[in-house]
Structures are given as structure tokens and as C-alpha cells.
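During the reporting period the student researcher (J.K.) took over the structure-prediction task from the postdoctoral fellow and processed the backlog of single-chain submissions. One of the processed entries is reproduced below for the supervisory committee.
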Amino acid sequence: MDDRLLPLVAVAGRPTLRRRAPGFAVGGEITPQAVRAADPAVLRAAGLSTPKVRTLTGIAAALEGGSVDLGAVETMEADAAATYLTRLPGIGTWTADIYLLFCLGRGDAFAPGDLALQVAAGEAFGLPGRASPQGLAAIAEDWRPLRGVAAHLLWAYYGALRTRPGAPA
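J.K. obtained the following C-alpha cells:
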């Protein structure tokens, strides 16, 4: 383990790396066809913003039309997979990185654009403020091929920072 991460473990403990079965507990199977057939008003009533509805239906159309293959993403290297996903309208680097980390459980995925990771790294490594996305990406290079584990540790550290006495709400 990178010695710079040891103080984070001392504060936050070892993060729990959870994996659950894919899918949702309620609502039935979600297919591209079902998404495309859904009334946008129903999707908005379920909590999706208009841009998210547009992104979701665009992804469904791409899956249905064969212009994107999520199965192929599972076998790609993390950075290549993120680049592939960001070709989809409405999918930025943060979304792609989080998908790789939480949906595919990719151990080398890392989300340098995540605000909590930036704040935690800034605090942990004595930076004058939060880490920039570029700076955090550079720091995370040392953690390959387990950048995802470091991300979970930084999120746990961020949570511990927010619960300490006197921490901002």
C-alpha cells in the first residue's frame, strides 16, 4: 500500500468494497426497448431530469441499434472503457468512471473529477485546497492497477472528515 494512504486508513478504516447482484429489486427488467417505449413524463416522475431522460433514451437507442456494446466495455482496460462510454451523448468522464467503479466493479477505474475525491486528497496530502482533476489523476497513477481501491478509501476518508467535530455540514 502507498504509505501516503496509511493515515487515511487510520482515520477512516478500511473501506468496505461492496458488490451486489446487478439489476433492481423492483420495477421489472429494464431493457432498451422498455426505456424507449416509456413515457418521458413517467421517467421524469420517477426522478429523472429532462436531460437525464434524453441521455437514457439515447443510450437505449444506441444499444438497440448496435452502435454501442456494453459487453465489450467489460473487457476493455479502464481508461479505454471510459473513453468508449464518453462517446455517448450525455455521458461525461465522471459518469463513465463511476459506471466502471460501481456497476462493473473495475479495480483500476478512478474518478478524478469527483468533488469528494478532490477534497479528500487535498486534505490527506496537505494541498492548499482540493486537488484539481488533473493533479488527482497524476497522483492516482501511483496506485495502478488498484486506483479503484484508493478511490473507495478516499471516499471513506471524506466521510470521516465530514463527521468530525467542527466539520462543515
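The committee noted the following: Residues 147-163 form the longest helix (17 residues).
J.K. will present the remaining backlog at the next meeting.
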